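Figure 6 in text form: structure in, sequence out.
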């Protein structure tokens, strides 16, 4: 395992570097809790998958909130909004998500409705989180977006066309992969907590490799790992 500075979280038997590594594995890669348990066991660290689950729930959102604060206001001014169906215990929900022009996740919100009120809630959350309105907003042809935008951001340019919204559509794939690996989300609360954490950690390691030289990619990856360590090991927990 990569060397970390010695650190411990209060009232936890395992060092902070093991806990943060387990949380990183779970949210960074499409792994199940038992996969993470096996990867740690291979390195001589005997931790149950239930413990990994508790670490992910306790620390994951704390790490994500730190990343969210660091990136506030630094995304592209073109927002793409879309929604996907999530079935939880036989009930249909809508996962509303927003990404910027470069594919970075701005926010995600699980809701039981697909109407103007739900679109308004997402847009208010986005404006509060980013602190600034976009220059352009891209959506599909769902009329709820137009109605909500007219109330909150009437001066923002709105392009409503399914073919223009590929960035948002493609960003759903990562969530779908995790949903299958987790054998569906078990509750609305678990789903919201997971997507809120996963999106921010995914942003940190989204490096657009096809546009980089190998040397530049390694440099950016090293910087991302350093940022992760700095954030994860500075949490007061």
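Output sequence:
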């Amino acid at each position: 395992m990569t060397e970390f500075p010695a650190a411990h979280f209060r009232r936890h038997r395992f060092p902070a570097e093991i806990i943060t590594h387990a949380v990183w594995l779970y949210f960074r890669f499409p792994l199940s809790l038992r996969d993470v348990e096996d990867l740690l066991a291979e390195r001589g660290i005997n931790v149950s998958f239930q413990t990994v689950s508790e670490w992910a729930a306790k620390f994951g959102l704390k790490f994500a909130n730190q990343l969210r604060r660091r990136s506030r206001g630094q995304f592209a001014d073109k927002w793409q909004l879309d929604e996907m169906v999530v079935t939880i215990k036989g009930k249909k929900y809508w996962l509303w998500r927003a990404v910027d022009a470069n594919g970075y996740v701005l926010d995600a919100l699980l809701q039981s409705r697909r109407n103007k009120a739900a679109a308004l809630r997402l847009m208010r959350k986005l404006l509060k989180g980013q602190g600034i309105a976009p220059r352009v907003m891209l959506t599909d042809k769902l009329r709820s977006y137009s109605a909500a935008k007219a109330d909150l951001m009437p001066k923002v340019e709105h392009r409503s066309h399914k073919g223009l919204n590929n960035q948002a559509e493609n960003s759903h794939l990562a969530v779908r992969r995790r949903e299958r690996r987790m054998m569906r989300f078990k509750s609305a609360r678990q789903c919201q907590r997971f997507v809120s954490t996963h999106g921010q950690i995914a942003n940190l390691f989204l490096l657009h490799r096809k546009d980089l030289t190998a040397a530049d990619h390694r440099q950016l990856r090293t910087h991302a790992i350093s940022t992760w360590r700095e954030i994860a090991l500075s949490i007061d927990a």
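Caption detail: Residues 1-6 have pLDDT under 50 and may be disordered.
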